[in-house]
C-alpha cells in the first residue's frame, strides 16, 4: 500500500485477518511476534532478574579481576571513553564503581578530542597516559578494532582492557591483543544478547567487579544500591546510542528511566534540573530529544571532558554550572546543524544524489563542523531515506560520519570501499571514517555503486510499518494506556502504528505552527451515525491541507496517545500518513 508520504507495510501480513479478532493491545503484541507466555512476561513485566549473569560475557571475569587487583594495589587507572552519550555514561559508570569501594583511588577519565584526535584508542594518548604514571587503561565504548594501539600498550608495559560493542573486524580480522577484551559478540561467545551498548557493557563490568570485590555472587547492600544507582546512566547510554530496546536493553531502560528522577548522582540531577524535567515523566523520547543532545553537544561543539566531569567528580554548584553551559552549547549545535543540513541538501540535489540512479549521498565541504556531521547525516537520512556520508575537507584529509537506513548496513558498505579509506569503524546504522582528499572522488563513486547494487528504488521510499488495523471506537483510555505500557519505545520497539481503514475527515484541516507547517485533523468513524471524533496532529504536512476536504473517506496511520493539557486529559493521535480514496 502507498500513502501520500510513505509505503505501508504490515509487520505480520500473514496474520492480519487473525489479529483483527483479538483485543487491540493483544493484536499489537502478536503483530510483533510476542506470543510465547515467557517472552510476553519478560516484555510486559521486566524484572531485574531478567538481566543476564555478567560472567557469561567473554572477557568480563578477567577484566573485573584485573580491575579489582588494580584498586587493591593502589595502581593508577585510566578510563578511556568515547565522546558521545554512550561513552560518557559508560565512563561515569566505571568511575563511580571504583570510587564507591575506594574513594581515594587514583582513577581518571580520558576522552579524546573529537576533532583533534578522533574516535577510539590512539597510540599517542596511550603513551602519554603511561608516561603520566597510569598502570591500567580500561576502554569503554571503543577499542575493538584498535590492533596497533593494543600492540603499543603491550610494548610499553601498559595493561589494557578493552570493552566495546561496535562491529567486530571482518571475519578474517584480528582481535586486539589486550589483557582482556570484553564484547558480547566475540567469536565463540555464549552471551545470550549481543546488542548491549557501551554503557550496558560498562554496567556489566561494574556488576562483575562488585561480585569479585565482595568475594560472593551476593554483594552487600551498599554495592547493590550502587548498581541500582548506575542503571539510569546505563539507560541514558542505551537510549541515546539507539541500540534495540528489546531483551536486556529493555530491562535496563525500563528500570533506569523509572529511577532517574530519584538519582543521588549530583551531575545527573543537575542535568535533569537544567532541562526542567524534575517534575516530568522522563521517557525515552525525553532522553532522546532533551537530555542526550545536551550531553552530546559538549563533545560535538567543544570537549566531552566537561560532561564527564559533571557526571563524576563535580560539586553540586559546578555541576549546575556545567549543565547550564551544555544547554547553551546545544543551542549552538542546533543552529550549526540546521545550516549544514540545508547546505548539504542543496549540494545533494544538485549532484543528483536524491534520485533513484544515485542511491546514496556522499559529500564533503571545508566549512562544515566535524562535530555536528553525525547528527546532520541523521537528518538527511530521514529527509531523503537513503544512506548519507558527510565529511569535512581539511587540506589533505577528509573526515566525518555516516548514517544509514534500516535496509542498508553502512558498516558493510565502508568495508567494501575500504581501499579508498584510511580508517573507519562503527556498526550497521552509524559509522565514522577518514580518507585522503585525493581519494574522495573515487570513494564517492564506489559507495554509490555499492548502494545502487544493494538498494532498490522501492527501498528508498520511507516505510511505515503497521502493527494492525483498528477503529476509533476501540481507542478508549484503557486500551491506549495499555498501548503506552509497551514503552520504553525506540529501535526495534517503536511506538505502535495503527491503520484506521474507514476514517472520515470531520471538518477542514487546520494549519498550525510556524508558516503553517503542521495540520490538526479531526477524524470520526466511517459510519455517519457515529459522532465520536479523534483529534489528530500531522507534523510537517501543512502543504497537504488543500488535498483534504471535509467528509472525505480516508485510510490513515496513527500513533495513539493520551494527552493532558491544562488539567484536561484526552485521547489524541499523531497522524503518520494518509491514503486518499483514489490512491
Would you kindly provide a written description of the structure presented here, covering whatever features stand out?
The protein has 583 residues and is α/β, with parallel strands linked by helices. The chain has three domains: 139 residues, Beta Barrel (OB fold (Dihydrolipoamide Acetyltransferase, E2P)), CATH 2.40.50.140; 209 residues, inorganic pyrophosphatase (n-terminal core) (Alpha-Beta Complex); 110 residues, Diaminopimelate Epimerase, Chain A, domain 1, CATH 3.10.310.30. The protein has 18 helices and 19 strands. The chain has a five-stranded parallel beta sheet with strand order 3-2-4-5-6, sandwiched between helices. The chain has a five-stranded mixed beta sheet with strand order 7-8-9-11-10, sandwiched between helices. A hairpin with a 3-residue loop joins strand 10 and strand 11. Helix 8 packs antiparallel against helix 9 and helix 12 crosses helix 14. The chain is globular and about 75 Å long. The model has no long low-confidence stretch (mean pLDDT 93).
Amino acid at each position: 500500500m502507498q500513502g501520500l508520504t510513505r509505503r505501508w507495510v504490515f509487520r505480520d501480513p500473514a496474520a492480519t485477518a487473525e489479529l483483527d479478532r483479538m483485543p487491540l493491545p493483544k493484536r499489537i503484541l502478536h503483530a510483533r511476534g510476542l506470543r510465547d507466555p515467557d517472552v510476553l512476561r519478560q516484555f510486559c513485566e521486566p524484572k531485574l532478574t531478567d538481566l543476564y549473569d555478567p560472567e557469561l560475557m567473554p572477557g568480563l571475569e578477567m577484566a573485573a579481576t584485573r580491575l579489582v587487583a588494580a584498586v587493591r594495589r593502589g595502581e593508577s587507572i585510566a578510563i578511556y571513553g568515547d565522546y558521545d552519550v554512550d561513552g560518557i555514561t559508560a565512563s561515569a559508570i566505571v568511575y563511580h564503581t571504583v570510587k564507591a569501594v575506594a574513594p581515594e583511588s587514583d582513577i581518571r577519565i580520558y576522552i579524546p578530542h573529537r576533532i583533534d584526535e578522533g574516535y577510539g584508542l590512539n597510540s599517542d594518548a596511550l603513551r602519554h597516559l603511561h608516561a603520566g604514571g597510569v598502570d591500567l587503561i580500561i576502554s569503554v565504548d571503543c577499542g575493538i578494532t584498535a590492533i596497533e594501539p593494543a600492540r603499543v600498550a603491550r610494548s610499553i608495559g601498559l595493561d589494557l582492557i578493552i570493552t566495546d560493542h561496535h562491529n567486530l573486524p571482518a571475519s578474517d580480522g584480528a582481535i586486539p591483543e589486550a589483557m582482556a577484551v570484553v564484547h558480547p559478540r566475540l567469536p565463540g561467545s555464549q552471551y545470550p544478547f549481543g546488542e548491549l551498548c557501551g554503557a550496558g557493557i560498562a554496567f556489566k563490568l561494574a556488576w562483575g567487579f562488585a561480585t569479585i570485590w565482595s568475594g560472593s555472587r551476593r554483594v552487600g547492600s551498599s554495592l547493590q544500591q550502587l548498581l541500582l544507582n548506575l542503571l539510569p546512566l546505563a539507560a541514558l547510554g542505551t537510549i541515546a546510542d539507539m541500540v534495540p530496546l528489546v531483551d536486556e536493553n529493555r530491562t535496563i531502560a525500563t528500570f533506569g528511566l523509572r529511577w532517574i528522577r530519584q538519582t543521588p548522582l549530583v551531575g545527573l540531577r543537575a542535568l535533569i534540573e537544567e532541562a526542567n524535567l524534575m517534575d516530568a515523566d522522563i521517557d525515552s523520547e525525553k532522553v532522546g530529544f532533551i537530555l542526550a543532545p545536551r550531553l552530546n553537544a559538549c563533545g560535538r561543539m567543544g570537549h566531552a571532558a566537561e560532561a564527564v566531569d559533571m557526571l563524576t567528580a563535580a560539586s553540586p554548584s559546578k555541576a549546575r554550572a556545567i549543565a547550564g553551559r551544555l544547554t547553551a552549547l546545544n543551542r549552538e549545535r542546533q543552529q550549526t546543524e540546521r545550516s549544514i543540513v540545508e547546505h548539504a541538501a542543496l549540494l545533494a540535489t544538485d549532484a543528483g544524489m536524491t534520485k533513484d540512479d544515485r542511491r546514496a549521498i556522499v559529500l564533503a565541504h571545508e566549512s562544515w563542523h566535524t562535530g555536528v556531521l553525525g547528527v546532520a547525516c541523521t537528518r538527511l537520512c530521514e529527509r531523503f531515506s537513503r544512506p548519507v556520508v558527510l565529511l569535512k575537507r581539511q587540506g589533505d584529509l577528509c573526515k566525518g560520519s555516516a548514517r544509514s537506513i534500516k535496509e542498508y548496513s553502512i558498516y558493510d558498505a565502508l568495508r567494501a570501499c575500504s581501499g579508498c579509506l584510511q580508517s573507519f569503524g562503527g556498526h550497521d546504522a552509524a559509522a565514522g571514517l577518514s580518507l585522503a582528499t585525493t581519494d574522495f572522488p573515487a570513494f564517492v563513486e564506489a559507495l554509490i555503486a555499492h548502494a545502487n547494487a544493494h538498494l532498490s528504488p522501492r527501498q528508498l521510499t520511507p516505510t511505515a510499518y503497521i502493527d494492525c488495523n483498528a477503529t476509533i471506537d476501540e481507542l478508549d483510555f484503557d486500551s491506549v494506556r495499555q498501548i503506552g505500557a509497551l514503552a520504553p519505545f525506540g529501535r526495534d520497539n517503536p511506538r505502535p502504528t495503527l491503520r484506521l481503514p474507514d476514517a472520515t475527515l470531520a471538518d477542514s484541516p487546520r494549519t498550525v505552527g510556524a508558516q503553517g507547517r503542521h495540520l490538526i485533523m479531526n477524524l470520526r468513524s466511517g459510519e455517519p451515525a457515529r459522532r465520536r471524533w479523534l483529534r489528530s496532529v500531522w507534523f510537517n504536512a501543512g502543504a497537504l491541507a488543500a488535498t483534504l476536504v471535509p467528509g472525505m473517506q480516508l485510510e490513515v496511520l496513527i500513533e495513539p496517545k493520551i494527552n493532558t493539557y491544562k488539567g484536561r486529559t484526552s485521547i489524541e493521535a499523531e497522524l503518520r500518513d494518509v491514503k486518499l480514496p483514489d490512491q
